[in-house]
Amino acid sequence: MRILYLTSAFLLLWVISAMGCSREQLVPTIPPAPTPTVTFSPTATPPPPKMIFVTSTSWAGSDIASLANADALCQAQAGAAGRAGTWRAWISGGGVNAIDRIADVGPWYLVDQTTLVFNNKTGLAGAPINPIILDQYGNYVGDFGIYAWTGTAPGGTADGVDCSNWTTGASTGTIGSATLATSNWTSIYTDSCSNAYRLYCFEQ
User: How many domains does the chain have?
Assistant: First the structure.
């Protein structure tokens, strides 16, 4: 009987030992989590602001010739100052509205790229935030007596006073004042189309 007890005790110890080994074998080894790799995206460079200027050159109303030629004059003036991009004149004629000729972009700044003039296309129907007093070279044009042909009423629509669609000097055309930050920027007087005035040019 004593031998039977010893044998049973030995068997019990052996089973317990075997079970302990089994538990150790069943517990998986968990490797450490990999360290995540952080990738930094480069900061995107914002595009340069769109610009607006009043030309350094003046033309008789009859020399404007057409809306397409007014755009070409703006493009040439911008190119002379080393300014790339596409430029369009703020001018109405033949029932075509100046505001409809400007692409729906913005805001627009003077060519110093720091002086805000219009926040967006909607702003073109109102008053500029600052007067348009720099030409394509960045030269200050003065405080008074700086006018541009527009043929355009406040709000950006054609007023019909456009030198017979910019083809004759024997008529009158609407001009705006570049030195005013009011609706007069686009319409302040009408004058003889034989006189010479500037143009407003918008980058598209």
Answer: 1
